[in-house]
Amino acid sequence: MSGSLHVTLKQQRQQHQQHQQQEKRQHHYESSYYLSTKSSVSKQSFSTFKTASHRLKTAVTTEKGQEVVKLSPLPKRAKRTYLAMDTDKEVIGYVIPVFRANHDVVRGLMETQEEVTEEGINYVAMRNLFVREAKEALQVKVEKKTRTTHIRESAERMELSRTMDEWAEFRKKMNPDSLTHPPEIIVKPRGQTVWEGKTVKLHCTVAGWPKPRIAWYKNNVLIDAKAHPEKYTVESNYNMHSLEIKNCDFLDTAQYSMSALNVKGESSSVATVVVKRFQEGDEPGPLDPKPHGFCPEHGVTFETTILDKFEVGFGREGETLSLGCTVIIYPTVKKYQPEVLWYRNSKPLKPSKWVHTHWSGERATLTLVHLNKEDEGMYTLRVNTKSGFDTYSAYVFVRDADLEVEGVPVAPLDVRCHDANKDYVVVTWKQPAVEGSSPILGYYIDRCEVGTHHWAQCNDTPVKYARFPVTGLVEGRSYIFRVRALNKSGVSHPSRVSEAVVAMDPSDRARLRAGPSAPWTGMIKFTEEDSTAGVVPGEPSDVVVTEATKSYVVLAWKPPVQRGHEGVMYYIEKCISGSDTWQRVNTGMPVKSPRFALFDLAEGKSYSFRVRCCNSAGVGEPSESTGEITVGDKLDLPSAPGNPVATRNTDTSVVVHWAASKEVTHLVGYYIECTIVGTDVWMPCNNKPVKQTRFVCHGLTTGANYVFRVKAVNAAGYSQSSSDSDAVVVKAAISIPGKPTGVTLLEAVKDYMVLGWTEPANNGGADIRGYFVDYRTVKGDVVGKWHEMNHQALTTTSYKAENLKENVFYQFQVRAMNMAGVSKGSLPSASLECKEWTLTVPGAPVGLHVLEVRDSSVVVLWEPPAFDGRSPVNGYYLDVKVASAGEEGWKAVHEKANKMKYMKVTGLKAGTSYVFRVRAQNLAGVGKTSAVLGPILAQTRPGTKEIYMDVDDDGVISMIFECSEMNEGSEFVWSKNYKAMTDTSRLTIVTEQGKSRAIFNSPSLEDLGTFSCVVTNTEGISSSYTLTEEGLKRLLDISHEHKFPVIPFKNEMAMELLEKGRVRFWTQMEKWTSDCQVEYVFNDVIINQGKKYSMNFDKSTGIIEMFMDSLEITDEGTFTFNLVDGKAKGTTSLVLIGDEFRELQRKSEFERAEWVRKQGPHFVEYLDFAVTQECDVLLKCKIGNVRPETEITWSKDCIEIAEDDEDAKKIERKDGDLTFNIGKISKSDAGIYEVFLKDERGRDRSTFNLTDAGYQAVMNELFRVIANSSTEIKVLSTEHGIVLYSMVTYYNEDLRVGWLHKDAKISASERVKSGVTGNQLWLKINEPTEKDKGKYSMDIFDGKDGVKRAFDLTGQAWEEAFEEFQRLKAAAIAERNRARVIGGLPDVVAIQEGKSLNLTGNVWGEPVPEVSWTKNDKDLLPDDHYTLKFEHGKFASITIAAVTTADSGKYALVVKNKYGTEAGEFTVSVYNPEDEENKGEKKD
After folding, report:
1. How confident is the model at residue 256 (pLDDT cuts 50, 70, 90)?
2. Residue 1073: exposed, middle, or buried by beta-carbon count in 10 A (0-12, 13-18, 19+)?
3. Is the CA virtual torsion 157, 158, 159, 165 positive or negative?
4. Rounded CA gap, 1248 and 1181, in Å?
């Protein structure tokens, strides 16, 4: 060892002898196998004297004068031999150097065998030598021994050596190796080729002793049959072994190998299984069209129907989300179940702690527990049958959890571990969609050792890159990791933890994944020594820099070829550019992994790196230098994506396309953000990055105007956001309709033809507004150009093409039109000649349609042709063919003409599509065929019900048809022989919700025929029932039996408990006579009136009673009433046994105790609550058997309410009713209320818990009263807009009120606001526009589902409200802008004669008003005496020079504009001082 002192050989030998003696005493050596298996035998071990080679100790003197023993370096080629033995000198452990299987596997293999094989013992666990001897160097002891002790220990050592030699000879004689042999495969598994959906079985026969253990592999991966019992079955009977692969699919094509293993060796064999498809091609994805194939195993073709499909889902982190579909497989085969698989983004999901799947046989359910953003994506349900597969997909969005601190970023996602080694792993993650109020500054990485709950932060400084090398792991331990994001506002929630990763050598991990292994053939050899022990390792190779950022640099290299079996560790050295000095980076402890991360390097500087290997023999030569590496980021931020384009998709989604980033390396994906026009709040559309350049953004508000932008992300961070897209309104996209079909000729004359066609199956999402007809001429094989026939759209599916030329052939095509545009032209009609029909045969029937589509039948209906020919139509012929067949496939459904305009076609094959056509016939012959109807799929709609006959208890005969898929406006329409019924005297129709009953008023032969019922506004739900003469006779017989039945019971025998715990058995008959007799029976024994039983039969009411005072154990059994009424008989019984009897007996005893309680003051009705119509909350109860001296006490929260308390005023007693009027409840009223009754006869108590659930129940009832008190929505127009309001009796602040417009929640804005004023709930629409028209509804929470009030603000209501708003607005404008005098003029002016008067008035008006002055209601004109001015449009002034008494009078300032006129009046009084004095003197 470095730093040790050199001593003489003599000193070394002395220390060597002392070390041997110390080992003899302490017995501290243990075998590696003994340590790994933790054997319970004594932990004592011995070392053989002959083969052991020990390191020499060196005694040195420290500075303190103490003598310390140190180990000398291990010499090359040194060998050690350890042997573990118990107290009886039995060998208990050894090490196998070549066979490196997992200890648990080896131990399991050994436990199955009876023999114990002893092998070589001199192998040393060299891989632990370096660490163990380092510990020995730290734990050396100083011990002085006498010569006597040394001699005694030497003798004991020699004795031990002799004993071991004798034991080895004995074991050689007893070695049972001659009886054992390695596995031998007698019959090898044979390769097979099978079809998809089949089951394949591989067989083999293996011999060997001890009995070999068999393992099966698929492409060298161990098959765990117990984990996948639905896929694999492994059997082992004696020496015959098999692997069964069930329901093979294309992914099962692989090489399957069988490995047989025992202690003597291993043998294996390989067989190839090839699975063929019914349709050749590439492996279909989950969204590809499904293949179909006949299943010869069951003799059917399975058809899959997926119903009740899950929609686009939205969840929040931490919540649980379930997806499910109903799957119907037809036909049903006993004990056969399909394979149900779930995928996320086309990758199969496996059950885990986060993912739970369930298949009930009909319902497939996927439950995502504790949602995280990693769970976001496209989810696909795939149902595999032996005839093919079917899929359904929908997207699931996961929103971020609520933030505890506003502005912090959301949690990162998708934390993964890569390149794991003995003490090193690389952790990667994806950046979140939302950075918070400021950009992300970096990330913190936390680790936790599996089995503990302590999280340790791996980095002190946040890292910017989305990957980080974590070092310092302990070999053999498992770790999980999580990541947190940091910005200026704080740290985010931690991400979902990664999968656990083990810190171990990658080669060991590969061996563990592959399972136990050994040489394919040959023997397991055990060696005594290793020729490479103690060899100094060579230099590593291929040292490269795998990652380089400004924060760290990661080195990787390959281990040396020459390293021995004890393992090597590494020292890393660096050299700054421009110098020749190499510095060791990890001076404290060498690393075990061929990876190393260097931190604290200077950014911008260049370094070179190299690696040295070391083991117990020393440190090897350095590797080649990496060359100069400059510290800095090697990965650039991606460039901004191209301009996004947003297009309409559905009412709540928009499709966004964009161009990919041009400059990007290692793209992680894209984030899409949106904002509503007029706001500056950007919201993420996806919380998990997507790599494609197209994304459907769901969950948008219908009718809102959105703008979108995109940003790219890689490990370096986010790109700049793209430019904003053009604004798009969220509403369903409308497309042009499909093509019309079946263009046929209905009638032809010399210069015109009548055409008919069928409307397109797809209207493009909008109503068909009309049709356009094109024509072209045909001459032989030459066709002309298409020309339009009509310039205005047709509203019918027929057209009279006029102004044609006689004897010219024409072809016609039809195009449909909706608001999106005009469709493509239909298929051209046949070449039609324009000439007057001289044929006497009728034209083609029209209006073909189908009803009652079933697996094997369908009813086809039609209308007569427009042209009857020379004579009326007297019959029809119906043809049918398989849709995929050619023209030669047409077959007549019947031979004789059918006079009806309908026919039921039977004998169809389920799952096959058919087309139909009809020909009309008259006396002259059969006419042309109609347009082809179809294809129609012969398949019964799931959930379809048929009309059935019913005879009720009164003998009333009726037909019943039920429909579970009623839509708004759906009605039941009954018909007879597929014609509307005009005679209502025969049937009475009664319809209740989804059930319609046709009651026969007086059944007779007149009612024979086919009755059908169609449910309108559905997808053709219909059924029919044919009433025959035989069926009618049978129904009449059943009706007669019902009219004269056995004695009917209105109520079967029942039991009830009476006061004092008495038991009453009773029944009531529905029909009886006075001759009816009753026999009472208990357990087949007739019982009579007596002390125990009392009976009563009230023939006026038909009630039969039997009473018992109490129930005893002997009363367990069956009680029966037997009735006889003439020839009619009736029996009713009640069985009281087991738990039911004991429960009844307990209740009887309770009722008796209740009776005792009621002898004193008691509660007739216990304390409960009620809410009045005025919304006051009352606590009430009803008491009974009280006296004046009975004490009645109320308490709240165990505190008695005294008479002088404020709450005592709320208590009221009226007769036997006690009430506590809480009034308008608030949270301060919560508590536990109790009422006590007490007097000399007894006491009773009642409690009401007005907290938690009790308080919520009261509030829910209060909400119900408030909600039901709300008036219908009324409309009020103001100068600012339109107000919708509803009045309630009382309003509570906890009441939830929501407003909706067109069934969409209204978001609050400056223009549209909702609120409460007093008891008025209102919605104010400021400055309304046409977009504000529509249906408004108000949802008031009533504790359950809510009360809805609606108002349709369209039509006259809108016009009146909008007109009134405009009127009020105009009036307000006029009031604000009308001309008026706003001040400046006095009411009265007194002025002395001779003085000048000047008055100025303030004027307002828009536009500026006209100003005039009047005196005594006469216009005043300016002159020398009167000066009138109007300045700045605001100030009007009048000046009267040298006023006289003549100027006294009533003046007015008159202002006028287009909005109105106003006058400011004032009075001028002119006086003469002398006259005033004279008047005063006269008075005196």
Report:
1. very high
2. exposed
3. positive
4. 10
